[in-house]
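FIELD: query
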Amino acid sequence: MFNSPILDVTIGLVFVFLLYSLLVTSINEAIASTFALRARMLKNAITERMLSDVSTTGRWTSIWNGFVSLWAEVAKIIFGSWGKEKKEKKLGDKFYDHPLIRNYSSSRVYPTPSYIPNSDFSNVLVDVLKQEFENRKSEIVAYKYKHQTTEDTENNILQYLEYSPDIVKIKEVIEYYGRSFAEPHLAVTNPIIDKAAWEVVRMHLNSSNYDFDKFMAKLENWFDNTMDRVSGWYKRQTQFILFFLGLFLAIMFNVDSIGLANKLSTNTDLRKLLVEEAISFQNRYETSTDETPKDISTAPTNIDSLEREKRKLDSTGLTNYQQKVDAVMKLKREEIDSINSLLALGWGNYGMKRDSAKKLEAYFKKCGCDTLTDAAERQKLLEQLYRERWFKYKVSYVICEAFQGRRLIGFLLTAFALSLGAPFWFDMLNKVIKLRSSGVKEGSSSREGSTVVNTGKNAPVIINNQLREEAQG
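FIELD: result
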């Protein structure tokens, strides 16, 4: 009932999407690690969202600023830092200049961490506010002395504040900045706290009833809530990266979803071979306890899980982890090469035969040579032209072919499919193969927990009907 050509075409497409999504996911992880995308996202969330005024720039301006800052970070990684540090540092800058945060950096190339515990966030923020109290102490004392209702001297007020608990010092700093926001003539020189950040800190300070432990807990809760949203921002950024990586690979390998579906629907032998490959792949990883695609395809996408995993691994664990990644990457390359060969994907000879006479005549005219009449020599010269001028002939051919109407739609569909991620397609492959096996009546026998499917070869393929928990997502 379910063993139909339509289902076989679906299995073939899902299998191709799975293999390429594995490759796309791995490339994305390499990009995220190389350019410290998690650390950048975390730093922007703390410095630009939590501890400063939220930007009011437009959508396209924000996109452009993000693009420029990304490539500025890339240039900094390659060429090192340059220029002078800005003199007026804000609360977020002082937060990241704190020794505890700087201690989390892995190297000078990657000076910012990709994970910060909520307790360290609250401790560092309180310490920065206390340091700001020390810097503004004389101004705070002068204001309190001028507006006091008692007869205390400035020295008495100073001693009282110096020996006060930390929560009182933070309260004094917040009130000091509050007066500057309310009264323009009391404006602070070189302020480090923006009004938006001041309002949030003041709200948490008041709601804690000036209890230090409650205040710390509220700061930590504020940080956790922000990190939940940051995880969503990072996943959305990852989706964009996966889409454009998928579009690039789809064009490079000529993985046109529409053309591939047409090819599978009209070629019975090819369809059967691809289904057999998919079933073999699914069985191999369904029963494997090691090297399962889930290990790579479900690489952490939130802002801190990767750093947590790294902290759990010692040097031996990191070595084994890297060996496992290398093994799966090698297997993926073998699988993709096999499927490309089976489906005849790619661009063939890049239109080498098309208008070859014109290409050679232009070459002869330029170099002042006579036209060759020998076919073998002409072919040899044509291949040499494509090697030496690959951009002119190969890349231009791919661009011209890729941006045709139907084919471009097929590439966009492939890019969208790959952006869904390898876990989605691995789970989908399990489901469609299970659906196909449930409809097989002839040439099958019932076994506990498995189904035997006759694929046309001498030995049947045994499909495990009991999906493992991790494969079910």
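FIELD: remark
Residues 5-26+258-440 form one domain.
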